[in-house]
Amino acid sequence: MTSAVSPARALVCRGCGAEFPLAAQHACYECFGPLEVAYDADALKKVTREQIEAGPDNIWRYAALLPAGQDPADRITLNPGMTPLVSAPALAAELGMTGALWVKDDSANPTHSFKDRVVSVALSAAKGLGFTRFACASTGNLANSVAAHAARAGVPSIVFIPSDLEQGKIITTAVYGGELVAIEGSYDDVNRLCSELVETDEFEDTAFVNVNVRPYYAEGSKTLGYEVAEQLGWRIPEQVVIPMASGELLTKVDKAFSELVEIGLVDAPANGWTVFGAQSAGCNPIAVALHEETDEIRPVRPTGIAKSLNIGDPAAGLYALEAVRRTGGWMDYADDDEIRDAIRLLARTTGVFAETAGGVTTAVLAKLIKSGKLDPSKETVVYNTGEGLKTLDAVASLVGPTHTVKPSLRSVREAGLLG
Ligand SMILES: *Cc1c(COP(=O)(O)O)cnc(C)c1O
Ligand SMILES: [Zn+2]
């Protein structure tokens, strides 16, 4: 039986440890540090594998480990999750890996990115907190997901994006009919503006999924850790490679693995697990801080085709650094040509067509093997977080028909296609 009570206990400051009640608050009143959901440890320890396995085929099978949505009637959701964990032996062979390689393909979610997970949890929490309008500051996929969730729930939405996003992201958001506001600026400008809007009386009724309800939003990413472990037969993989924008997803996959061990749902792996982070060369502030052995993450003005990852001032960057250092991992970044090549490599070897973020992750996997940072003999999971159809421009000039012939046998023969 799933308990209808949330196991969440409080919001805790990641900086100073101060605790606050479960409300719409995202920064600490003491030190302005970011807040994170803390759970009742005893409640989590009661959760069993059998209970999870008997749950629905989506993220809500983990409701007893999440801060919202325990009662299905309280959910605002498109029921994302339980996306395929694809075995990738051909990609492994091409990269010189002898260990098992898997692609966790989150393009299979309802709006085709991992953002459906975080939005479902954030908006279910927002509903419980009494909000009546949904909003976000987005690099594209988040806007898409918030607009779709709001449409399904019949709740008004207003989403904010940088005006230079890919057509594929704008159309897939606009079609849902909510307000879509393009800001002439970078994502970081959009985010700053939303932080101001959220303080106004006019937006008092509005949940910005990644601003005032961010602690709940962030927890949705844990399901990408739980699912991989469950799909591997309740086992944590030895190595994971994760794309980073704010760095939140990476920290939460690591948190999910820790929780699974703490509450006894998986055995602690003999040598732990190792977390690797991937960015693009056009927006690499977290990876550069790691390379320079500093905790000072210098904001950048993002450029390049991996727009979904273009956060120049990453909110969870410090925590991503901490997770990667603690687990003995590494971070690297890939330039636009490497990203385009990697999108095609992944497609050609696995049948998964990734958006630019998946190209980043695949390209960085290859780099990590080359530099000896990632062990090619260990079991590895790479996360594809988005869908190639949303960023067609990235590869449009590189692919097309391999032949163009007349509709006749002779033409086909002359093209050398009959062998
Ligand atoms: C948002 C996003 C990410 C990264 O999310 P963070 O939690 O901010 O690091 C990765 N991939 C895709 C496709 C995204 O849209
Ligand atoms: Zn604090």
TrEMBL record:
The domain of life is Bacteria
Q: Which is one GO molecular function term here? A: threonine deaminase activity
EC number of this enzyme? 4.2.3.1
Per the record, a Pfam family?
A: PALP
Organism from which the protein derives: Catenuloplanes indicus
Q: Which UniProt keywords apply?
A: Lyase, Pyridoxal phosphate
| InterPro entries given in the database record | Ser/Thr_Dehydratase (IPR050147), Thr_synthase-like (IPR004450), TrpB-like_PALP (IPR001926), TrpB-like_PALP_sf (IPR036052)
- What is this protein's name? Threonine synthase
Q: Which residues carry this modification: N6-(pyridoxal phosphate)lysine?
A: 115
- Write down the required cofactor(s): pyridoxal 5'-phosphate
